[in-house]
């Protein structure tokens, strides 16, 4: 935990060495108080006094998670300020302020339920809170303050509902990232739905907002309904499919129509088959999806043929990382907008299939439970299987969160040109190579972890090779002599992978994206 905290502090100071403003003081104060409060959360988790049931075999992860959203907002603000895009500069300020307030809320919650009340930690939390609120008072307009408070309110209600319904699925830090992100998306969708101006906004951004909110609402509706009825019967399954069609065609489609002012299905079909390149990419991705399904079926057939209980090895699970890299790299090079939309569709399908598995919806629910149980690890200790969804999110978030409006047209210069590749580098290449080489040839273990020195070093080396290949094959990338910063960023994130107990598929790409954007 101490080394993980040291690496997070190094990332915070590295960003603010480049981007130093009034929010830098807030970020440093937030990091210091989160470091102390993290130990209070860890003690609550050990004693079982954390109100909700969080994921075991991991620390609270409050410090690394607390800094992600604020740092992302700060670097987004600075990049858009340099580009002269005032609207997104203000948006970055709102993101940073929201992230700080959400992290502060989790800290206050931990301090409030700790007995006896930790005096020193209370004082630190009060000082950090005062600095953050003072800065927000002098940085945000009244409407922006209201927006930040709206996100906080949504986060509080979502946390109470989902953490109760889904025990042992998240650590406090993972809950902050996931539920904080969903809360922000829901607030943005409500805000844009109430202020629709024809022709303003990119349809693919609206598509992401509606898809995320739609699948979350779908899950909440069915969770409530299946409290009163058995979800494993044919009648319940027919009701599930019928209600999915009703909610999709009667709520989600009209909502999207209101935002983009055209038929969503026709728009989507026209978008997907607009060019010949997109058709080739879709065929290629279909082949890769079939290959991934083939791996699942083959491994399950292998399990059935063995007398003893068979569980997929680390190398077998990393096959999917290789497939995802093969999926994303051509999309990043040839058509990022298509990759953006395809990733949103894939996320919606993954979450829907998880509902089918979780609720045992016929005819595929029980089959999915059997097929996916082979690939479970210690992080899937709750009722949901989330590792494959986290993998998709880790690869997609750098694409979704990349401020396209603030990026210069044509060739992208500097380390920021690699921002969309953050997921590919950190998870697809770095995490995969570290796991494969660490589990096969690794002998020297990092103190206090199961990760090896050999795995980390080969991960750094592999990511540097991947950067060189990106330079060769993607003509829009020009690193412009920023090699030292890229090497330092990759090394820092690889060390964080060795020491963190949080979901690395989600955390590592975000930290690499922040460092590269800075």
Task: Explain what the structure shows.
The protein is mainly alpha-helical. Helix content is 75%, strand content 1%. It has helices at 2-18, 22-47, 62-83, 86-113, 119-139, 142-165, 172-194, 203-225, 234-260, 264-272, 276-305, 314-334, 336-358, 365-373, 387-401, 422-440, 453-473, 483-499, 504-517, and strands spanning 412-413, 477-478. A two-stranded parallel sheet has the order 1-2. It is globular. The mean pLDDT is 86.
Globally, the shape reads globular
Low-confidence parts: none
Q: Give me the Rg, rounded.
A: 22 Å
Task: Report helical residue fraction.
Answer: over 70%
Largest sheet: 2 strands, parallel
Spatial order of the strands forming the largest sheet:
1-2
Query: Number of helical segments?
Result: 19
Main location: endoplasmic reticulum
GO molecular function: dolichol kinase activity
Membrane topology: Multi-pass membrane protein
InterPro entries: Polypren_kinase
Summary of the model, kept short:
With 518 residues, this protein is mainly alpha-helical. It contains 19 helices and two strands. The protein has a two-stranded parallel ribbon with strand order 1-2.
Please outline the helices and strands.
Elements: H1 2-18, H2 22-47, H3 62-83, H4 86-113, H5 119-139, H6 142-165, H7 172-194, H8 203-225, H9 234-260, H10 264-272, H11 276-305, H12 314-334, H13 336-358, H14 365-373, H15 387-401, E1 412-413, H16 422-440, H17 453-473, E2 477-478, H18 483-499, H19 504-517
Parallel strand pairs: 1-2
Helix pairs in contact: 1-2, 1-3, 1-18, 2-3, 2-4, 2-5, 3-4, 3-7, 3-19, 4-5, 4-6, 4-7, 6-7, 7-8, 8-9, 8-13, 11-12, 12-13, 12-15, 12-16, 13-14, 13-15, 15-16, 15-19, 16-17, 16-18, 16-19, 17-18, 18-19
């Amino acid at each position: 935990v101490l080394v993980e905290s040291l690496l997070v502090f190094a990332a915070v100071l590295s960003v603010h060495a480049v981007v130093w403003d009034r929010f830098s003081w807030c970020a440093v104060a937030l990091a210091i108080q989160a470091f102390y409060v993290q130990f209070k959360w860890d003690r609550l988790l050990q004693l079982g006094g954390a109100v909700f049931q969080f994921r075991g075999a991991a620390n609270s992860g409050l410090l690394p998670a607390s800094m992600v959203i604020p740092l992302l907002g700060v670097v987004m603000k600075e990049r858009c300020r340099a580009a002269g895009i005032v609207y997104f500069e203000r948006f970055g300020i709102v993101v940073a302020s929201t992230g700080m307030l959400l992290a502060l809320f989790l800290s206050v919650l931990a301090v409030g339920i700790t007995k006896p009340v930790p005096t020193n930690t209370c004082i630190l939390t009060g000082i950090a809170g005062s600095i953050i609120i003072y800065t927000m008072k002098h940085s945000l307009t009244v409407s922006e303050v209201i927006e930040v408070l709206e996100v906080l309110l949504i986060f509080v209600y979502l946390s109470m509902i989902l953490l109760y319904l889904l025990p042992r699925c998240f650590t406090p830090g993972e809950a902050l990232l996931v539920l904080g992100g969903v809360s922000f998306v829901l607030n943005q969708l409500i805000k844009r739905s109430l202020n629709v101006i024809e022709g303003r906004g990119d349809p693919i951004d609206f598509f992401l907002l509606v898809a995320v909110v739609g699948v979350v609402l779908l899950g909440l509706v069915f969770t409530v309904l299946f409290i009163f009825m058995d979800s494993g019967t044919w009648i319940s399954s027919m009701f599930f499919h019928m209600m999915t069609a009703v909610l999709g065609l009667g709520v989600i489609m009209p909502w999207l129509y209101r935002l983009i002012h055209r038929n969503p299905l026709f728009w989507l079909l026209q978008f997907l088959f607009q060019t010949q390149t997109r058709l080739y990419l879709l065929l290629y991705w279909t082949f890769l999806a079939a290959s991934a399904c083939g791996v699942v079926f083959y491994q399950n057939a292998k399990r059935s043929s063995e007398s003893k209980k068979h569980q997929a090895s680390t190398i077998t699970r990393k096959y999917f990382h290789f497939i995802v890299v093969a999926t994303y790299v051509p999309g990043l090079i040839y058509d990022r907008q298509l990759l953006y939309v395809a990733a949103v569709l894939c996320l919606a399908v993954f979450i829907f299939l998880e509902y089918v598995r979780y609720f045992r919806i016929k005819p595929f629910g029980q089959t999915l439970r059997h097929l996916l149980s082979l690939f479970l690890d210690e992080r899937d200790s709750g009722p949901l299987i989330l590792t494959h969804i986290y993998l998709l999110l880790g690869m997609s978030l750098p694409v979704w969160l990349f401020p396209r409006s603030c990026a210069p047209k044509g060739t992208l210069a500097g380390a920021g040109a690699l921002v969309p590749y953050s997921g590919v580098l950190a998870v697809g290449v770095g995490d995969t190579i570290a796991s494969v080489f660490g589990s096969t040839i690794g002998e020297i273990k990092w103190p206090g972890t199961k990760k090896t020195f050999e795995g980390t070093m080969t991960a750094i080396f592999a990511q540097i090779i991947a950067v060189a290949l990106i330079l060769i094959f993607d003509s829009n990338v020009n690193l412009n002599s920023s090699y030292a910063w890229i090497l330092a960023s990759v090394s820092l994130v690889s060390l964080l992978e060795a020491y963190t107990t949080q979901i690395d598929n989600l955390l590592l790409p975000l930290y690499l994206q922040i460092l590269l954007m800075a």
